[in-house]
């Protein structure tokens, strides 16, 4: 179950129900193959066996500037509060993704998984990198494996379920 959404269009980034007060500088989406590394008897090194795909990683880079409304540190503090947000069970928030770029990559939900910030001594601004990891609930992954295998789990009727 999602706890809000993540969206970025026309430079505006919305996280949960808050429009972030920063300027979108860059967006990257990374996918990778998941490998099992196995040692083979009598051979040096390890054999890499492809096992599927890693969850995708999304990075948004925001410029947090200082102006009359707030300074860059106030903006960073707001981002940090969103990063440390929790659901009612104390878990990190799961967000629905509303963006064509991620739709093209078949990414539907993410978890806000990292926040990096940096500044220099040349201007009164902070660069914030927001990291998101694709979230695929275990039930969805299981259903996809069953569909892909062409086998369906046997149906359990109500009388068998109560045993």
A few lines on this structure:
This protein is of the alpha+beta class and 163 residues long. It has helices spanning 72-83, 100-104, 138-149, 158-161; strands spanning 5-9, 12-16, 18-19, 23-30, 33-39, 46-53, 57-65, 94-98, 109-118, 125-134. The protein is built from four helices and ten strands, in the order βββββββαβαββαα.
Describe the structure.
The protein is α+β, with helices and mostly antiparallel strands. Helices cover 20% and strands 42% of the residues. It has helices at residues 72-83, 100-104, 138-149, 158-161; strands spanning 5-9, 12-16, 18-19, 23-30, 33-39, 46-53, 57-65, 94-98, 109-118, 125-134. The strands form two sheets. An eight-stranded mixed beta sheet has the order 3-2-1-8-9-10-7-4. Strands 5-6 form a two-stranded antiparallel ribbon. A hairpin with a 1-residue loop joins strand 2 and strand 3. The model is unreliable at 158-163 (pLDDT under 50).
Strand content: 35-45%
Helix content: 10-25%
Compute the average pLDDT: 82
> Distance between termini?
30 Å
Number of strands: 10
Taking all Cα atoms into account, the compactness measure Rg is: 21 Å
Low-confidence segments, given as residue ranges, are 158-163
What's the main sheet like? 8 strands, mixed
Helix/sheet category: alpha+beta
Series of secondary-structure elements, N-terminal to C-terminal: EEEEEEEHEHEEHH
Strand adjacency order, main sheet = 3-2-1-8-9-10-7-4
Number of helices: 4
3D shape: globular
């Amino acid at each position: 179950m999602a706890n809000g959404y993540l969206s970025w269009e026309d430079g505006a980034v919305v996280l949960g129900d808050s429009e972030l007060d920063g300027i979108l500088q860059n967006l990257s989406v990374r996918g990778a193959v998941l490998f099992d590394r196995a040692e083979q008897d009598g051979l040096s090194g390890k054999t890499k066996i492809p096992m599927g795909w890693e969850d995708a990683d999304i990075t948004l880079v925001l410029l947090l500037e200082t102006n009359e409304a707030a300074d860059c540190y106030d903006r960073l503090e707001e981002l940090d509060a969103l990063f440390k947000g929790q659901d009612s069970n104390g878990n990190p928030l799961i967000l629905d993704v509303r963006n064509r770029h991620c739709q093209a990559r078949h990414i539907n939900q993410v978890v806000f998984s990292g926040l990096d910030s940096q500044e220099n001594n040349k201007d009164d601004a902070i660069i914030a990198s927001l990291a998101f990891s694709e979230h695929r609930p275990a039930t969805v992954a299981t259903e996809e494996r069953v569909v892909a295998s062409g086998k369906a789990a046997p149906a359990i009727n109500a009388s068998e379920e109560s045993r």
